[in-house]
Design a protein that fits this description.
The protein is about 40% helix and about 5% strand. It is mostly helical. It folds into two domains: about 20-195, Ferritin (Up-down Bundle), CATH 1.20.1260; about 210-245, no CATH class. The strands form two sheets. It has a two-stranded parallel sheet. Strands 3-4 form a two-stranded antiparallel sheet. Helix 1 (about 20-25) runs antiparallel to helix 4, helix 3 (about 35-50) packs antiparallel against helix 7 (about 140-160) and helix 4 (about 55-80) packs antiparallel against helix 8 (about 165-195). It comes from Terribacillus halophilus.
Length: about 290
């Protein structure tokens, strides 16, 4: 159960309206790595968590905080749209909303949202549930969460540099600080899980079933050998099970692909070099008669 507290987690008060910046701010609200994404990602991970205790509790703690961040951004965007803007720059656009649209404002803020925030990114693309990850494997999910917080903090920092409004910067500085904590939080949770489960996901798969001869070999598939000096090609593997090897000229290990032609009703084109084996009515690769 959730309940709403009318007071925001932190201030969301711009010094002046700026509808063009409101459009930019939509990215960290409804973009791939925006607050709606992490809110939904953590909520579903928490709701789906089958391990009662600290991990489920932590997930729902941070998920609920992210709801507060969505509210802060939506409030800020709505205030940035106030007046939209207050002065006329062109005789042909005396309506301040029309002027703002011509100046780079997201027209849907006015037409669809009524000067309110929307669940879209900065290009107007609607938020998509495919952005979120909730696999049921906590280690895999926590690594995705670390990536989400890393990308989100990067974008908020870029937006901080794109405005001089002290009120907007004040709110963004709070969100940046919370992203610092959240990155540290996921790194700590990952370390905690790795101490008992190991570093490879999933830890429950029998490793003897994989092709172990290539489990720890870095393969060079590009010109140059600069990658040879990397930690990923030298020393002990991070799961402690082997030593990294480097293959500077990997050779193909599979067969030359050969596909039977499709049925006549599909009206495909059979390759000219293939022929029907007499008496058996099937296709064969050249040279295999």
């Amino acid at each position: 159960m959730f309940y709403h507290v009318k007071q925001l987690q932190y201030n969301a008060k711009p010094t002046r309206p700026d509808p063009v910046y409101a459009k930019k701010l939509q990215e960290v609200l409804g973009g791939q790595f925006g607050e709606i994404s992490v809110m939904m990602q953590y909520l579903f991970q928490g709701w789906n968590c089958r391990a009662e205790g600290k991990y489920r509790d932590m997930l729902l703690d941070i998920a609920t905080e992210e709801i507060a961040h969505v509210e802060m951004l939506a409030t800020m965007i709505a205030q940035l749209l106030d007046g939209a803007p207050a002065h006329d720059q062109d005789e042909a656009a005396k309506d301040p909303v029309v002027e703002a649209v011509l100046g780079g404002m997201n027209p849907q803020h006015a037409i669809v949202g009524g000067l309110g925030a929307r669940a879209d990114d900065s290009s107007g693309y609607p938020w998509n549930a495919r952005y979120i990850i909730s696999s049921g494997n906590l280690l895999a999910d926590f690594r995705a969460n670390l990536n989400a917080e890393s990308q989100g903090r990067l974008q908020v920092c870029r937006l901080y540099e794109m405005t001089t409004d002290p009120g907007v910067r004040d709110m963004l500085s709070f969100l940046i600080a919370r992203d610092t904590m959240h990155q540290n939080q996921w790194m700590a949770a990952i370390e905690d899980l790795e101490s008992t489960q190991g570093s490879i996901v999933p830890s429950t798969f029998n490793q003897e079933a994989e092709k172990q001869e290539v489990s720890y070999t870095f393969m060079n598939f590009s010109e140059g050998e600069e990658s040879k000096s990397g930690r990923w090609a030298n020393g002990s593997s991070f799961d402690g099970q082997a030593t990294f090897e480097y293959d500077g000229a990997p050779k193909p290990m599979g067969q030359i692909p050969f596909l039977q032609p499709g049925p006549p009703y599909l009206h495909g084109t059979a390759p000219e070099e293939m022929r029907i084996q007499q008496g058996k009515g099937k296709m064969e690769p050249p040279g295999q008669s």
